[in-house]
Design a protein that fits this description.
Distance between the termini: 22 Å
CATH class of the largest domain: Mainly Alpha
Helix content: over 70%
Oligomer: single chain
Largest sheet: 2 strands, antiparallel
Radius of gyration: 39 Å
Structural class: mainly alpha
CATH topology of the largest domain: f41 fragment of flagellin, N-terminal domain
Strand content: under 5%
CATH superfamily of the largest domain: f41 fragment of flagellin, N-terminal domain
């Protein structure tokens, strides 16, 4: 091999190897520091594009989860209101039975009626109070489905055809609008019959509300599991294997040291020419 002081081929080769080793070391250190093997599109355009789409879906499902949880909260309060009303109806029936006793004096029946009307007022209060985030699906008179029904996002495209719809209820129409008084024997007997029908309507509403609540809770669990799957999918595309990269980091650091030493040796070669001239 020709030894020249103008062109040091060995040094150039060693420098190229050192630069390549430094670039590889930078990549590994970037993966270790960020925890990502695909941080930008230049790392892997295809994987980065797929990961970005899945990230968008993951964020969209956050909105779905919030909508479903809001629906659960609304139904929780509505169902508790219906349970309270059902219990009040039991107490009202007891009062109506008392008032239907023929042996009761008018003054006594009047006192029973006063208690009865207090229960009527409590039913109205409970219906009006069954509100969460400004939404009350029990107190709609009349019900306008387009605006009154509870419309819940079920998937990230927000397709109305795929939304979960919980129908609103005009509960006052099946409760307070039908309540009378127990001030007389005849009205007490009539009220007992009316309470049977009202109780059946409230029970039916409770069953429907409970079914919808169960459906939302199941969907909330599904959305959560789906988000976990998306996170795993994104991780498999872009996350770095830190165990592997830690081993590579050690290896490349050694290569860097060897390349540096090789460059130092190559740079010292022209000194041999000077030694030749000194001997002469």
């Amino acid at each position: 091999m020709v030894v020249s002081i103008n062109t040091n081929t060995s040094a150039l080769i060693a420098l190229q190897q050192l630069n390549a080793t430094n670039r590889e070391l930078d990549k590994i250190q970037d993966r270790v520091s960020s925890g990502l093997k695909v941080r930008t599109a230049k790392d892997d355009a295809g994987s980065f594009a797929v990961a970005q789409k899945e990230r968008a879906d993951l964020d969209a499902y956050d909105s779905v989860g919030h909508s479903v949880q809001r629906g659960i909260n609304v139904l929780d309060i509505s169902l508790e209101a219906l349970k309270t009303i059902s219990n009040l109806l039991i107490e009202m029936k007891t009062k109506a039975v008392q008032a239907a006793n023929p042996a009761l004096q008018p003054a006594q029946r009047s006192l029973v009626n006063s208690d009865y009307q207090e229960y009527v007022s409590q039913v109205t209060t409970v219906i009006n109070a069954a509100t969460f985030d400004g939404v009350n699906i029990l107190n709609k008179d009349p019900v306008v489905p387009a605006t009154d029904d509870l419309n819940i996002l079920a998937e990230p495209t927000a397709n109305p055809a795929l939304s979960i719809i919980v129908p609103a209820i005009n509960l006052k129409a099946v409760t307070t609008a039908l309540f009378g008084d127990v001030n007389m024997l005849a009205t007490a007997q009539t009220e007992m019959t009316a309470l049977e029908g009202i109780s059946q309507s409230v029970s039916a509403a409770m069953a429907a509300m409970g079914g919808n609540l169960s459906r939302l809770e199941n969907h909330s669990s599904f959305v959560s599991k789906l988000q976990d799957s998306l996170r795993v999918g994104i991780g498999s595309l872009v996350d770095a294997d830190l165990t592997r990269d830690s081993a590579l980091l050690k290896s490349v650091q050694i290569q860097q040291q060897l390349s540096t030493q090789a460059l130092q040796i190559a740079n010292s070669r022209p000194q041999q020419i000077l030694a030749l001239f000194q001997n002469n």
